[in-house]
Amino acid sequence: MALIFDIGISAEFWRRKYPLTRAPENPLLAPPLDAECSMAAINELAPSWAWDFAEYRNQPIDVLVFDNAKRQKSQARKAYAWIGAVPEGSFYELRPGVLIESPEFMFLRAASLMGFERLVAFGDELCGLYSFDEEQKRGFRKREVPLTTKDRLGRYLEKAEGCWGKKTAVRALRYIVERSASPMESFDVMTMCLPYKLGGYHIPQLAMNAKVPLTPRAARIARRKNCYLDMGNVEKHVDIEHHGRLDHSSDEDKESDRDRVNGLKEMGFEVIELTSKEVGDLFVYECIIERIAKLLGKKLDKSKFGPTPARLKLRKELTLWNSSSGQIR
Fold this sequence. Notes:
This protein is α/β, with parallel strands linked by helices and 329 residues long. It has helices at residues 7-17, 39-52, 103-110, 116-126, 150-158, 166-173, 183-193, 216-222, 251-266, 276-280, 282-296, 309-323; strands at 2-3, 61-65, 77-81, 91-95, 98-101, 130-132, 140-142, 207-208, 211-213, 226-228, 231-233, 238-243, 270-275.
């Protein structure tokens, strides 16, 4: 039995190969302590590896064992030994005899492989309604069901006693949002809602893609029974919309957006519309942030506005993360 242990490969599988319509089910309850990296196991793994992930065809396969004595090196594979406890739910069977790490285990491992800003963004993706895929025109695919949830991540991390990265992963979990529907929505909510010390503006946490049932009159205006907020606060009737260049470019899309916005306004919602150009201009973005904070009843500390080191780092890291399609390493 061989266990794939390259987090980049694991991420590619969950992003590009796993169905968009369901969450992962039935992980292995116990870690496969008999995992090995013998040439026989590797030879069985290599053909399916090359078929599913052609871009990695000429790279050594990273595999995991639980006994240091079983580590073997060659040009075909790199073997890593995991010392310590492994939580239940860390692995799924990719095919008979081949295992791959779970989204929860990926998040735990990512905590020791990437910076904090990207770790939160990765968590937003795992708990979100999109998965990076550089082969797509928009750079991502829409998911109907998230790969995991904050609750599942939290329960998994509770069992990760003594594991590398747990402390950082638990800290990042506090700032993850669920149901973000695009990389730019994650960018927006992180730059708005993270604490000042992490480069945000400490805006109260926003609900992502929350469902709003419309009144009969609003439904006639919007030409639908329900609307979904990009980011917002249903109780305070605030909706923040990010209009991406590709998602809202056709006349049909623009008309649908207008209908939806008018329906929400009929319900008393204040709708704030953002573009990538506005988000990229820090002065303009902060003017919009002030308006959002006022609508939410949040008083901001303007002495912490502007291009602070933490803010510049956050924006740079998220821009690089999105432009690389979430490359982990």
